Amino acid sequence: MGITFYLIAAITLAGALAAMTLKHLVHAALAVTVAFAGLALFFLNLDAQFAGFAQILIYIGAVAILVVFAILLTRGSDLPKDGVFSHTWFVGFAIAAGIFAVLGWAVLASAKALPSESAVPAVTVHDIGVVLMGRYVLPLEIVALLLTAATIGAVIVALHEKERAR
Amino acid sequence: MVEKADQVFVLLQHWLISFLPAVLQPAAAVLLGVIAIVCVFPGLFALTTIFERKGLGRIQNRLGPNRVGPFGLFQPVADGIKALIKEDIVPTSANPAVHFLAPVILVVAVFMGFAVLPMGRNMVLVDMDAGLLFFFAMGASTELSVFMAGWSSRNKYSLLGAMRAVAQMISYEIILLLSSVAVVMTAGSLSLPKIVAAQNQYSYGLPHWYIFTPWGLAAFVMYAIAATAETNRSPFDLPEGESELVAGYHTEYSGFKFALFFLGEYLAMFSISGLGTTLFLGGWTAPLSVLAWIPSWIWFFGKVMISIFVFIWMRGTLPRLRQDQLMNFAWKFVLPFTLLDLLVTAFWRFMGEGWLRWVVSTAILAGAYVFMGRVGMYKEHFGSRTYRYAE
Amino acid sequence: MASVSPLTAYLVVAALLFSIGLAGALVRRNAIMVLIGIELMLNAANLNFVAFWRYSPHPEALTGMMFAIFSIAVAAAEAAVGLGLVIAIYRHTQTTDLDKMNRMKG
Amino acid sequence: MLAQNALPLLDFGNVPIPPQAWIVRWLWLIPALPIIASGIISLMKQPRRRLSAGLAIAALSSSLLLSLSAFVYVINTKSLLSHFGFDPMVREVFNRPWFHFGNSPVDLGWLLDPLSAIMAVMVCFVGLLIFIYSVGYMAHDENFTRFFCFMSLFAGAMLGVVVANSMLLLFMCWELVGLTSYLLIGFWYHKPSAAAAAKKAFITTRVGDVFFLLGIVWLFAQTGTLLFYNHGSGSLETFALQTLLSHHAALGLSAAGAIGLLIFAGAAGKSGQLPLHVWLPDAMEGPTPVSALIHAATMVAAGVYLIARVYPLMSAGMPLTASGEPAGTTTALVVVTWVGAATAVFAALIAVAQNDIKRILAYSTISQLGYMMAGLGLGGVAVGMFHLITHAFFKALLFLGAGSVIHGCHEEQDVRRMGGLKALMPATFITYAIGMLALCGFPIFFSGFWSKDAIIEAAHNSAFIKGPYYLLVFGALLTAFYMTRQVSYVFFGQGRGDGHAHESQRVMTAPLVILAFFAIVLGAIGTPAWPWFRAFLDGQAASFNIHTLFEAEFAKLLATSAVIVFLGLGLGWWLYGNKSPKAEEPDALEKAAPAIWAGLRDRLYVDELYGVTVIAFYYWWARVADWLDRRVWGGIVAAVAWIFKMFAQLNRLLDLHWVDGIFDKICEEFSTGGGIVSRVQNGRAQTYLRILAFAVIALAAILVWSARP
């Protein structure tokens, strides 16, 4: 529980909060990128090198870019005219707070039962590869199929329909 | 003596940190490495700019810079001073924070990539287990900075240039990654020093570089194409096509921020050349076993400089592509071919030693190349250009 | 906070992140921001997985890590399809405001 | 099947016959290949001309190869059997059960014996030549692929008739032949006359087929099997024939005789025998290759082939002498003989007064079919079949020649508008002349002479039926006469047509030359000196004996027929040779006897007779049925409908006031309730998400509450 943890937590939560509250969509997208980067740092801090780099590669390199593309394509970079939040925003915040209360209570209530091994796991990329190709080969194939389907699906969904072109 | 020359920088580092208490030694070693990288590559950048301008000059049948210093060698210094003392203009409508952060993030992310490149025997800053993944993660981060630069400038040319750059970089990053995966499959590691070590063998005095296999050659060609596109170099320099977009995403940058972009671009070129060298050209290993006495870092930087020369040469030779040609080329030719190359690599791996795998792999790749190039790309009009002149 | 074990701290951070994401998903009017909120929620879950993996008695089984990696891959697919849908909806309705997308009203 | 036939041979140990001959098992491929080809062609687009024609020809060529190997197999097996002292009759069958009819299984099968082997070879060969000829003849037709589809199907169906070993299979293929003949005759369906002719052919043959079907059913009822041969239990084998003979039908006929006559009615329909011949001349409306195929090799031959196939049934109960020679005849055969002989003369008479080149040939075909029938009735299978085979070749030759003439004269069919083509179309002329001489029975050198002579000889030698001999001889005279008339009109004299005639292309003349060659040489296999054909069919060895030609009895006959032929030729040449009358000028015979000429020209009023009798009767009957339908049945139906309508009215009232009222009330309540609930579904995704999250909180609360200590 070093200073690093608090620093990263602060960066991540600040990024997430900014993303959810900033008016300007591009700013929000950049803020969420900060949150993603913070999460990647969390992963590195947790000795999960592979997951951390994958997080950077996928979330910062792909998802964030995708989000800003979508924002620009839907003219989201203009400021919204009638408010960022929906008019019943209070209900939403209340429910989110309720969820946090439930989760927090659950975590704190079970704190004693949680494992707390502190030895750094000696896991190399090679081990991950072996497990991916061995025990988790079926999920891997399914994810591959899912990604293919998602790629095709996204292309088809977003395809420009010629008849409806204005 | 030979050994000493090879390890001169390592020994220097050890000698320097030996003056410090043991607690501080690891941190100091890293700090020294970082300082070395931060000093060497910008120096190389300065050297390359004059090299490029002179080279392009020769290609275009003129002299190039020749006023500042002997043979114009001090031109980069003059340029640097000019960039530093120039007024830093930020457009009024621009988003100042993002506008400022973009070049910084770019340069930082690019510098990060050098951390895992082995520049000589035992000369790697961090020997990371997932080094290659780290390199690509950092490479992916540059895209966002390009977008930030283009968007925050509030300029149509900047935004268009940024969008083009991002689209192009995303498309070609996949190819870059997949062509590297072929090497990873064979070497069995994501760690770059290990990949170099796997190539550090000789039979009949010739090295076991991956470029000297059918799949390796194919992967290298694809890697080179993708690297050119990834660094926005000609003929893939559409994001900065001055005839269309003024200067692309850094149109609104001036002074030192512009210099940072300039620096970032060249650093990206170095790092991607360095990675290509590491993956396919045996990194710091000598091309012939008899030449192994020459220090390894000389080989590494020599290979990188040759790649840089090829970049410059291409820039002086090839015309720019069209946007649709660029995308079609990436998705319809290079990507399928790279995927096929992955299959061939797996095939190579499991076929065992012998001449048969050479014949089969070469046949598959050559057949696919001819088929996809002739048949698949026929409609994309990549054939010889036709010119029409005014009557 | 010194008495809090590392895992608990990570879990609390993840819960906070999840709630922020959920709040965003519940109150933002823009569909893209709702998707970002959902991504944040997914990431919070990933953080939980990795944290559990790190502090579990058998990290060499790699279960939590694998879960996180697969979850990242699935999230990428989800983002692609979700944003594609947003763009498609935008083309039809010229808006990404969820409050205006109520044609399915019963 | 085969194994049982060949097993005794295996006892010798060194017999070179394989225990299972593949050709028997794969015999079905002979009809199947053209049928499959036609199926494939039917899927092709119209412009795929070369491919469709190529496919049809390739399929039929393959069938020809298979037929030839079957033929060779029969010859080889026969010589082997006779060499080892067995009965040299080759008859191998391959049967498969198809379905059960009550308790009796209905089998399908195919049969390889000399008759089917030689018939299959003939059909394939002549058909193939006609196919090749069609490529040239139909070259300009837009429905080229459809034509080859039909032709291929037609050839396949005919081959099915040939190899069938089951009355049922034979009948199915028989009907398929009928269908395709309808399609082909009506190929140019946009011509009303062609459409009418197709209909006429279809309906007329159907009249015969009804009797045929009755015969089949009767046969099945009596013998319990429809197979021809099945190792002693087939319907044409001794046991079944004995059963049939022991049953007596009406008029002193045995069941065998009655069934034989019913089957003959079917054969008469297909082969255009006397009462049912009317469709054949009209069938000339189809394209010429179709005429050639129908008239020479396939459809009309099917009837003769059928009689030859069921000959054991027809001749059942025939008294035999001690040496096995027939010592009497049966009623069925007598009927066949008389009908055949009458048809021969009748059709030949009509042919004299026709002016359409193809119509003359059509009547000639009917006449020759009469000869074949008479030959079957008088001399048995070999005599009739020999004429069938030779006739197939020279009649195909004549039809294709006629087609070539028509093609060359720009679709002109009237012989009076032709003339002088001898010089313009030399290849056609020479081959046509060969065909004509073969048909006339020009002595010694032409196949027609030997086959026709065999029939006349059989008629002369027959001790039981005398009349047909004179009819047949008169028919031969007429044949020579009308063919001379036709050839004189077409090829000699001055050209009378408009437009310039030209020789046809190679692809059309080449089949003519091949057919002409066979029209000459085919006679060699059936001369009395070397009766190979008869021996082949009867399963005996043939021996060469030149002296039979010079026996007094035979020489007398030979001389008679020669004299008759020359008389006919001379008469024809005297009246028409090199005269080149004008087209509008009355015929030479018409000047002599206008009344007879008019009768002959109008085809002896058979069509008109049918018009006032059968067709008029059907019209009247149809009118009665129509009246019944409209007044009686229609009235009943209307009454029933009215009653139901009344019921429906009653029902409607009930529905309107009671059922609907209650239902509407319930629906209203539902609608109000739904309106209240639907407020929750406001179409906003976030509302749903909130409900979901709220539910999670609620669930957690319940959990916490219930887990409370």
Give me some keywords for this one.
heterotetramer; A: 166 residues; mainly alpha; Four Helix Bundle (Hemerythrin (Met), subunit A); 70% helix; B: 14 helices
Task: Explain what this protein looks like in three dimensions.
Chain A contains 6 helices and no strands. Helix content of chain A is 70%, strand content 0%. With 166 residues, chain A is mainly α. Chain B has 391 residues and is mainly alpha-helical. Chain B has one domain (89-372). In chain B, 67% of the residues lie in helices and 1% in strands. A two-stranded antiparallel sheet of chain B has the order 1-2. By secondary structure, chain C is mostly helical. Chain C has a single domain (6-100), classed as Helix Hairpins (Orthogonal Bundle). Chain C has helices at residues 6-27, 31-55, 63-93. The radius of gyration of chain C is 17 Å and the shape is elongated. With 709 residues, chain D is an all-alpha fold. Chain D is 71% helix and 3% strand. Chain D is built from 28 helices and 2 strands. Chain D has helices at residues 2-10, 22-25, 29-42, 49-83, 114-137, 144-163, 167-185, 192-223, 238-246, 255-271, 279-282, 288-297, 299-309, 311-314, 331-352, 357-379, 381-408, 421-424, 426-440, 447-461, 467-491, 506-521, 532-538, 552-576, 588-592, 594-601, 606-678, 685-707; strands at residues 92-101, 104-112. Chain D has a two-stranded antiparallel sheet with strand order 1-2. In chain D, helix 10 packs parallel to helix 15 and helix 12 runs antiparallel to helix 17. The longest helix of chain D has 73 residues, at 606-678. The N and C termini of chain D lie far apart (90 Å). Chains in contact: A-B, A-C, A-D, C-D. The interface between A and C is large, with 86 and 76 residues.
Global mean pLDDT of chain C: 84
Helix and strand element order of chain D: HHHHEEHHHHHHHHHHHHHHHHHHHHHHHH
User: How large is the share of residues in beta strands of chain D?
Assistant: under 5%
What CATH architecture of chain C do you see?
Answer: Orthogonal Bundle
Topology, number of strands of chain D: 2
| Outline of chain C | elongated
How many domain regions of chain C? 1
In total, how many beta strands of chain C?
A: 0
